[in-house]
Design the sequence.
């Protein structure tokens, strides 16, 4: 789980770099592949979910949905809208990390 979360953070960092380089389409592709709803299988989300409290599961689902939405927005090519959509991803991360800890 921790390695997945670290990869999520690295992905957000890569997305920020791509946005600053005006590579919105590439940022969207990476977001969907590594954070979006289509990434759930590769992250083993179903296996990990059974060890998480319901609220943590919901925060994770919100993050993955926000990432898929970001990918769609990024494809449209409006950088300010893409940054706003990216904030929805990080909001889900902040919410989860504020309420849950892995021991």
Sequence:
């Amino acid at each position: 789980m921790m390695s997945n979360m670290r990869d999520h953070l690295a992905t957000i960092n890569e997305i920020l770099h791509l946005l600053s380089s005006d590579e919105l389409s590439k940022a969207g592709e990476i977001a969907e592949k590594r954070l979006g709803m289509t990434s759930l299988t590769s992250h083993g989300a179903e296996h990990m979910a059974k060890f998480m409290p319901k609220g943590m599961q919901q925060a994770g689902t919100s993050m993955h949905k926000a990432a898929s939405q970001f990918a769609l927005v990024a494809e449209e090519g409006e950088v300010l809208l893409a940054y706003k959509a990216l904030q929805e991803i990080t909001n889900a991360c902040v919410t989860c990390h504020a309420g849950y800890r892995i021991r």
About this structure: The CA atoms of residues 10 and 87 lie 15 Å apart. Residues 54-76 form the longest helix (23 residues). The helical segments are 2-20, 24-34, 40-43, 45-49, 54-76, 79-99. The two ends are 12 Å apart (CA to CA).
